[in-house]
Amino acid sequence: MNVLxxxxxxxxxALAWKLKQDGHEVFxxxxxxxxxxxxxxxxxxxxxxxxxxxxxxxxxxxxxxxPESALMAGVVDVFAANGHxxxxxxxxxxxxxxxKAFAKEVMREANIPTAGYETFNDKxxxxxxxxxxxxxxxxxxxxxxxxxxxxxxxxxxxxRAAIIDIFTTDKFGAQSRVVIEEFLEGEEFSLMAxxxxxxxxxxxxxxxxxxxxxxxxxxxTGGMGAxxxxxxxxxxxxxEAVERVLFPLAKTMVERGTPxxxxxxxxxxxxxxxxKVIEFNARFGDPETEVILPNLASPLLDVIEAxxxxxxxxxxxxxxxxxxxxxxxxxxPGQAVSGQVLSGFDQLPDDVLVFHAGTTRDMNRVIxxxxxxxxxxxxxxxxxxxxxxxxxxxxxLELPETxxxxxxxxxxxxxxx
Length: 417
Ligand code: AMP
Ligand code: GLY
Hints:
- The model has no long low-confidence stretch (mean pLDDT 95).
- A hairpin with an 8-residue loop joins strand 7 (137-141) and strand 8.
- The protein is an alpha+beta fold.
- The protein folds into four domains: 2-91, 3-Layer(aba) Sandwich (Rossmann fold); 116-182, ATP-grasp fold, A domain (Dna Ligase, domain 1, 2-Layer Sandwich), CATH 3.30.1490.20; 187-308, D-amino Acid Aminotransferase, Chain A, domain 1 (2-Layer Sandwich), CATH 3.30.470; 321-416, Glycinamide Ribonucleotide Synthetase, Chain A, domain 4 (Alpha-Beta Complex), CATH 3.90.600.
- It has helices at 10-21, 48-57, 68-72, 75-81, 91-98, 100-110, 123-133, 156-168, 235-255, 288-292, 300-308, 383-395, 410-416; strands at residues 2-7, 25-30, 39-40, 62-65, 86-87, 117-120, 137-141, 150-153, 178-182, 187-196, 199-208, 211-213, 217-220, 225-228, 261-271, 274-281, 321-329, 341-342, 353-356, 359-362, 365-368, 372-380, 402-403.
- The strands form five sheets. Strands 10, 11, 14, 15, 16, 17, 19, 22 and 23 form a nine-stranded antiparallel sheet that branches. A five-stranded parallel sheet has the order 3-2-1-4-5, sandwiched between helices. A four-stranded antiparallel sheet has the order 6-9-7-8, with helices on both faces.
- The chain starts with a strand and ends with a helix.
- It binds adenosine monophosphate and glycine.
C-alpha cells in the first residue's frame, strides 16, 4: 500500500521504518533528509489542503498522523470529509491533548483516577487558591505548550511565579487559563493504545525520562530516552490502567459525541492508591514510539484496520526489550546549538537503529538542526543487553556540542537486580 506519514521527528521516522518493514511504499511529509529509504514530501504538517491534494494525486491508501499540531489543524477532519483513510483523532477529540481543562472534565465524567484540580481564568483567583492550598502543587498552562507549560512547584514562591508568568506573557496563547493540580508522587509510565470509538487495543508499557539530565535533574523536556516494556510493572497494575483509564475514556468520548480514533497516550503515575493519569496525548509518544514499534511483531496497518473495523485482533509483541537514547543539541530544552557535524552513522553495528529528529543533511554529512537530534535504539532479549548495546554504539559516534543521559532504564535495571 501507499502510506503517508505526517511529521518530521523520531516518532515519524519510527512509524515510517515500521511501515517499510511491513512492505509498504512510504511517504513522509515533510520528513527529514536522513530518513533513508523514505520519500520525503516538502509539505508542512499543518498545510492540510496540500496534504489532501497529495493524498489524492499519489493515491495514498492510508495516512498516519504524528504530531499534535497536524491534529489541531484539523487534518483528520478534512481527510475524512474527502473520503481518505487517515488514522488519528478529529479535532474535537484531539482536544484531550489540546486542552488540559477539557481532559480533566472528561476524566471527571468517566471517573478516571487523576490528580485533584481546579481551573482558573483569573490570575488573582488562582493566586488566592494556592495560598489556601499550600505547596507542593502543579501549575499547568491550558493549551499546547510542548511539555513546557508545566511547573511542579515545591514552594508557594515557585507556584506564584508560574501563575504570574502564564497570565502576564503571551507564551501560552492569548486566552490564559491555568489548571492547578494536586502533586502526585510515584513512578511515571506511559500506556498507549489503538482506539476507535469504544474499541481499544492496548499496547505494551513504556517509560520516558522527561528531565534533561541524569538522576532526573534539570528542566522538563519532550523526553530524553525511553524503554519498553517495563519489566518491573506488575500485571495487575497494567490491567488496572487498561480497565480504569483506557476503556472508560474511550466509552465517555463516544457518549459525549466526540469519539476518539487514533493512538491514545495516557501518561500515568503509579501512586500508593494505584495508577493515576497526569495527562492524555492524542497521538503516539515521542520517544515512546521509537521503543514500542521495534517490539511490535504484527504489521502496523493490520492492527489499525482491525481497530477501525471494530474487530478483535490478536496483537503480537516480540518477547524482547527495546531501549532508546535521545541525543540532544547542547542548550536544549532552551536555546540549542545547531549546525554541528554528526558522524560515524555509517559504521554503526546492525543491531541498533537510528531515528532522526532535529537533523538535516548537507551532501553526505548529518548536521544538527537544534533540539532533540536523534534517538538510537537497540532491541535485545534483556533490557541490560539492550542498554549496553545502545550505549556502546553511541560511544562510537562523533557528536560535538550534544548531550545525552547515561541512565536511561537505570531505575528499571536497579529494580530487577
Ligand atoms: P505534563 O505536560 O502534564 O505531562 O507534565 C509534565 C511533567 O510534569 C510530567 O511528566 C510529570 O513529571 C510532572 N507532573 C505533571 N502533573 C503532575 C502531578 N499532578 N503530580 C506530579 N507531577 C506532575
Ligand atoms: N514523551 C512524551 C510525549 O510524547 O509527550
